[in-house]
Automatic annotation (TrEMBL):
Residues 19-116 form the STAS domain. This is Anti-sigma factor antagonist. Belongs to the anti-sigma-factor antagonist family. It comes from the Bacteria. InterPro entries: Anti-sigma_ant, STAS_dom, STAS_dom_sf. It holds the Pfam family STAS. CDD domains: STAS_anti-anti-sigma_factors (cd07043). Gene3D superfamilies: STAS domain (3.30.750.24). Signal peptide: none annotated.
Amino acid sequence: MSETTSRSTPRPATGAARVVTVRGEMDLLTAPALRDRLDLLTAGPCPDLVLDLRAVSFIDCAGLGVLCRVRNRVLARRGRLRLVGGGTFLRRLFRNTGVAGAFEVLPGLPASAADTVSARAAGEAGG
């Protein structure tokens, strides 16, 4: 059974990025809830979003579609999107799917990232 959860930070007034930690699988079953959550987080002007994908075990085409959608939304609003992926999983996925240059991938959380608070990918109340 697929399950994805996310944790996100409230956007601090200091301009620090909002961090969303995604866990589990990003697939056809979990993509709609994650997409809706990320749409809420990127609805305003100039979103600064960091997606921590280090705890993601699997991404299918639906999950990749969510990443491309959030990237397009952030860029359209003149914001910034960074992905955190430990190891080679994300880089290999992006290279094999032809989107290698489309995302800024970091090895760890940026120093400016704020602490995270719990929230489910389904968009329940939280950060």
